[in-house]
Amino acid sequence: MNKIEHELKFEYIRASGPGGQNVNKVATAVQLRFDVRHSPSLTDDTRARLIRLAGKRVTNDGVLVIEAKKYRMQEQNRFDALERFHELLKKAREKPKSRKRTKPGTGSKEKRLKEKRERGEIKRGRQSRNIE
Question: N or C: which end of the chain has fewer CB within 10 A?
Answer without folding.
Answer: C
